[in-house]
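Hi F.,

I've been meaning to write this up properly since the lab meeting, where we talked about keeping a consistent format for the predictions we share between groups. The idea is simple: the sequence comes first, exactly as it goes in, then the structure tokens exactly as they come out, then a line or two of notes. No screenshots and no reformatting. I'm using this chain as the first example so we have something concrete to point to.
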Amino acid sequence: MKHTMNKIWLLGLSIAIALFSCTDPDLIGLEIQPQSDRITINTLDNDGAFLSLTSIVEDSVKSDENTLNLLGAYTDPIFGDVEAHFSTQLLLSESAVDFGDNPVLTSAVLHLTYAGYYGDSTQQMHVEIAALDESIFLDSSYYSNQTVIATNVLASHAFYPYESNPDTLGKYSLQIPLDILGQTVLDASSDDLTDNTAFLEYLKGIQIRTTALSGSIVYFNLKDVDSRLRIIYNDTLEFDLLMGSGAARLNHFTQAHQLTQELAVQSMGGYNLKMLIDTSLISYLQDSLADKPINKATLTFHQTGDTEYFGAHNSLSLVRVDSSGSKLFLTDFFEGGEHFGGEIENNRYAFNISKYLSQLISEDLLIEDLYLMPIGASVNANRTLLTGEVELNITYTEF
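Output, unedited:
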């Protein structure tokens, strides 16, 4: 597994601190600021061991039945090539369908409701639609590194995201002619059209994928009522195949994973930022904050490296990883978003870890790896570059 590492050294750090009754000002290299009830530790100011930071690859993310499905491919100037495509079932909108004798196809158009994009939408996107060779299932779990075979190409299409006019409700959709698939549906036997169980044996679903790099990844809402394959036959009759809540859907993501030294968080199975607090810091805080309750402890990360088209995440999540590898929310998370934080503000992500740090100091929790992670990693394409600066601010009550 490729990974990048940037080890930040701290505890000789200008802990802009604060102990009213300071003990030993030379303690592990900390600079004591008297008559204060605040401890401030910044990784850029000092040399001791406070926090190790490493960008690690997230092998995959769960990607089935998400609220959005992602499609596109582009080259990020720092992260390299990024690609997303998806597969979905098409479901009958009613059972026991009867198209009559010798129905004649008028048109078949795949409608995909737009829900946003990431990147440069002014570049044309080239995609193809293929029939699935294998079944996918609503009650199965799928991850972004899994592949679904689809060899029978039904159509190719080139478009600019959001180039069409919105409908009367202001919604935009991508519309792809799919007459071959429409004819396939009209050719189905009455047994094939009895219900969705039978129909999915006849037509397992479709895959929509890119055929070349473009400039963006587009988000689609396949659960929207207007996302459908609309078949018009005998000039005026209509029939819809749906991709809503009852349909199995999954996304596949491919990342270059080419970072060497950068600190980063990336969605779509890209990177998480792994960190470990050094035991010397906890030991110091145990001594310095004995019988001094923590009022607030904030851990702040600094963001950098936005480009015109590739912006940072609006918010990130901070979790701990236990000995079994399970990712668990910090205690502060359960106090609510206003307490916990994580939203970007002035190029910073700040997290309130007061309860978590108190648990470390009291040894109610062991020191474990922390992960800075994307929120909604399978429904957005954002990436965030971070500087080596991490700041821990602690305020406490001095009795």
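Notes:
Helices lie at 179-186, 196-202, 279-288, 337-340, 354-361.
The chain has two domains: 3-58+270-396, 69-255.

If this format works for you, I'll send the rest the same way.

G.
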